[in-house]
Specification:
It is a single chain. The chain is an all-alpha fold. Helices cover 84% and strands 0% of the residues. It has two helices and no strands. The chain starts with a helix and ends in a 6-residue tail after the last helix.
Protein backbone atom coordinates (compact mmCIF):
# COMPACT_ATOMS: atom_id res chain seq x y z
CA UNK A 1 0.00 0.00 0.00
CA UNK A 2 3.00 2.27 0.45
CA UNK A 3 3.59 2.34 -3.30
CA UNK A 4 0.03 3.55 -3.87
CA UNK A 5 0.55 6.37 -1.39
CA UNK A 6 3.76 7.40 -3.14
CA UNK A 7 2.10 7.33 -6.56
CA UNK A 8 -0.82 9.38 -5.24
CA UNK A 9 1.60 11.98 -3.90
CA UNK A 10 3.38 12.06 -7.27
CA UNK A 11 0.02 12.54 -9.00
CA UNK A 12 -0.88 15.42 -6.67
CA UNK A 13 2.48 17.10 -7.24
CA UNK A 14 2.09 16.63 -11.01
CA UNK A 15 -1.36 18.22 -10.76
CA UNK A 16 0.18 21.21 -8.99
CA UNK A 17 2.86 21.38 -11.68
CA UNK A 18 0.27 21.22 -14.45
CA UNK A 19 -1.68 24.11 -12.93
CA UNK A 20 1.53 26.07 -12.53
CA UNK A 21 2.39 25.37 -16.18
CA UNK A 22 -1.07 26.54 -17.25
CA UNK A 23 -0.57 29.75 -15.29
CA UNK A 24 2.82 30.31 -16.97
CA UNK A 25 1.56 29.19 -20.41
CA UNK A 26 4.19 26.44 -20.62
CA UNK A 27 2.85 23.99 -23.21
CA UNK A 28 5.37 21.11 -22.66
CA UNK A 29 4.84 21.43 -18.91
CA UNK A 30 1.09 21.16 -19.37
CA UNK A 31 1.44 18.07 -21.56
CA UNK A 32 3.83 16.25 -19.24
CA UNK A 33 1.97 17.35 -16.10
CA UNK A 34 -1.39 16.14 -17.34
CA UNK A 35 0.20 12.94 -18.65
CA UNK A 36 1.83 12.24 -15.30
CA UNK A 37 -1.45 12.89 -13.47
CA UNK A 38 -3.23 10.52 -15.84
CA UNK A 39 -0.70 7.69 -15.49
CA UNK A 40 0.09 7.89 -11.78
CA UNK A 41 -3.44 8.82 -10.73
CA UNK A 42 -4.99 6.01 -12.77
CA UNK A 43 -2.56 3.46 -11.31
CA UNK A 44 -3.21 4.60 -7.75
CA UNK A 45 -7.00 4.67 -8.11
CA UNK A 46 -7.23 1.32 -9.87
CA UNK A 47 -4.96 -0.32 -7.29
CA UNK A 48 -7.20 0.95 -4.49
CA UNK A 49 -10.31 -0.23 -6.36
CA UNK A 50 -8.84 -3.65 -7.09
CA UNK A 51 -7.06 -4.33 -3.78
CA UNK A 52 -9.13 -2.15 -1.48
CA UNK A 53 -7.96 -0.33 1.60
CA UNK A 54 -5.92 -2.29 4.11
CA UNK A 55 -7.85 -3.58 7.12
CA UNK A 56 -7.62 -1.47 10.26
CA UNK A 57 -5.94 -3.23 13.16
Amino acid sequence: MGLVIIFMLVALLALYGAFSAIKNKNVPGIIFGVGAVAVFGWFAIMTIVHSGFPAAQ
